[in-house]
Amino acid sequence: MRMIVTGASGLVGTEFGQLASSQGHEIIPAVRRRQQSGVYWNVAEQTCDTEGFEGIDAVVHLAGENIAEGRWNDAKKKRIRESRVEGTKLIASTLASLQEKPAAFVCASAIGYYGNRGDERMTENSSPGEGFLADVCREWESTTKVAADAGIRTVQGRIGVVLSEKGGALKQMLTPFKMGVGGTIGSGNQYMSWIAIQDLARALLHCVTDSSLNGPVNLVAPQPVTNREFTKTLGGVLKRPTIFPVPAFAAKLAFGQMADDLLLSSTRVLPERLTDAGFQFEYGDIKEALSGQFG
Ligand SMILES: NC(=O)c1ccc[n+]([C@@H]2O[C@H](COP(=O)([O-])OP(=O)(O)OC[C@H]3O[C@@H](n4cnc5c(N)ncnc54)[C@H](OP(=O)(O)O)[C@@H]3O)[C@@H](O)[C@H]2O)c1
Is the CB of 11 inside a 6 Å radius of any atom of ligand 1? Predict the structure, then answer.
């Protein structure tokens, strides 16, 4: 297949591109600077090289302002929202306008859609939650409707916490853990729905190629864990103690609103549609998944 990937240089885009290329697919990056090689698009200008999208087989849309880096002030929150909502609006309307439309449009979303829900088990049919991220995700997903209404099979991939040594949440946690000052955050009872980066790339490719998948698909491993279990397992894999808990107030002081929406929020999500579609996880267990990042 010939696929266009937005956010191709990011953590997920790089892994996805490598996997898809290794299986013989052609990956064309959507680029935000004209001098780069690929198909040009620019959210701020609301410009897209429509011709470059003609006749493509699939589009995987992963672009968005990084969520985990930097403090969430008003300007950062505006970039987080606009890069996703306006970016998706641009891509979805471009796809809808094509003469030769792609067979599949797979758009990233996040489990932030469900908000802070304690130990409730959530599937794709669960209601959306409340808060900044939940609002962004809801708006982000609803923007894909233009493409779906134009007859393109559209999947919103609700991605969990991606485990990779190369970036994202795990990379940020590694320094304190390796120094032996890792520990639980807040009560430690909050659920974290995670996915190994290798499985995420495979699951995204599954969403592209499996024509039975449509609408929201949770991209998480089948066994979410509490922050306490995650902390203990990461300490075990790194052979470091985890006896320095970070109280909720300290997390809020250090990270501001990001602490409430990401670190202290409890989201227990199950990959019902992916499992029903026959997808097999290589890393279904947190210990295997963490060990699998430090080869
Ligand atoms: N990593 C996670 O744990 C996680 C969890 C849930 C959901 N997700 C979602 O999955 C997608 C990919 O995540 P990721 O971890 O690969 O993110 P990432 O490493 O931050 O990469 C995102 C890519 O998007 C592009 N980008 C950055 N800022 C942008 C902006 N302001 N406007 C438009 N494009 C911008 C860049 O690619 P180019 O320079 O190539 O354009 C960047 O490399 C994101 O939508 C993210 O919200 C990730």
Answer: yes
Residue with tokens 């191709």: 8
Tell me which residue range forms the domain holding 45: 2-164+194-220+269-283
Residue 131, in any domain of the structure = yes
Report the CATH number at residue 136: 3.40.50.720
Classify residue 159: in a domain, yes or no: yes
Does a structural domain hold residue 257? Answer: no
> Which of 66, 78, 85, 107 has most ligand 1 atoms within 8 Å of CB, for mutation?
66
- State how many domains the chain has: 1
- Closest ligand 1 atom to Cα of 9: 40
- Alpha-carbon torsion angle 245, 247, 250, 254, nearest 10: 60
Determine which helix (DSSP H) or strand (DSSP E) holds 237, and give its type and residue range. helix 227-238
- Is the C-beta atom of 7 inside 6 A of ligand 1? yes
Mean pLDDT by 10 residues, the chain (295 residues): 98 98 98 96 94 98 94 95 98 98 98 97 98 97 98 98 95 92 96 98 98 98 98 96 94 89 96 98 97 88
Nearest atom within ligand 1 for CA of residue 66: 20
Q: Is residue 39 part of a domain?
A: yes
Alpha-carbon separation of residue 74 from 4, 65, 69, 71, 79 (angstroms)? 31, 14, 14, 9, 9
Atom of ligand 1 nearest to the CA of 83: 32
pLDDT score for 214: 97
> Model pTM?
0.98
